[in-house]
């Protein structure tokens, strides 16, 4: 599971990140709400763990802003404030759970699993749509207008990543991590080959989005 940890205490963040990684999760860590907003669009986390006392925008205001912007990703608040009223305020701000510091790793993992199950049971995103391009995330089919696009599983995953980020560019590093599971650059043209195949699959439909190269960055899918 991909987790975004928002914690300004570097020592605490490192300890939590190490525990989560050892338990099989992928972790991105940032120290402020502002950085978290930037990271959200790049990493597509499945769960957010947010410290309540953050510099600048605090954790509760961050969660409120998330919900106002339409983000439905599960959020678990971490806080040294553990009175019942503190928990109520946190949950009313839009958090899915509230855990008091110091955190026991076993309980944190159990709560992550619990809120993930609740959200998965209540909301499943079925489709992604951009112009005439449509991805059915249930049947794993891609279509442009009424034409089905034949994609390999890897090509479908690559297109899904690009559509979720659109109209923001996706870096090559992000694609290697999210589509191929690499945390290093294998120094091959594997991305370029798959991007070329996607461009060919989308074809010349005048209403289809455009898959472009962003020099020095990566790739972007934009509506015409």
Give structural notes.
- It is a single chain.
- With 224 residues, this protein is of the alpha/beta class.
- It folds into 2 domains: 2-122, 3-Layer(aba) Sandwich (Rossmann fold); 127-222, Winged helix-like DNA-binding domain superfamily/Winged helix DNA-binding domain (Arc Repressor Mutant, subunit A, Orthogonal Bundle), CATH 1.10.10.
- It is 43% helix and 23% strand.
- The protein contains 8 helices and 12 strands.
- It has helices at residues 10-22, 33-43, 59-68, 84-92, 105-122, 153-165, 172-180, 190-202; strands spanning 2-6, 26-30, 47-51, 75-79, 97-100, 127-130, 133-136, 141-144, 147-149, 170-171, 210-214, 218-222.
- The strands form 3 sheets. A 5-stranded parallel β-sheet has the order 2-1-3-4-5, sandwiched between helices.
- A hairpin with a 4-residue loop joins strand 7 (133-136) and strand 8.
- The radius of gyration is 19 Å and the shape is elongated.
- The mean pLDDT is 86.
Number of domains in the coordinates? 2
Strand order of the largest sheet: 2-1-3-4-5
CATH-derived architecture of the largest domain: 3-Layer(aba) Sandwich
By secondary-structure content and strand pairing, the structural class works out as: alpha/beta
**What portion of residues belong to β-strands?**
15-25%
The helix/strand order is EHEHEHEHEHEEEEHEHHEE
Largest pleated sheet? 5 strands, parallel
User: Which topology of the largest domain does CATH recognise?
Assistant: Rossmann fold
Provide the residue-averaged pLDDT.
Answer: 86
CATH fourth-tier homologous superfamily of the largest domain: Response regulator
Binned, the helix content reads: 40-55%
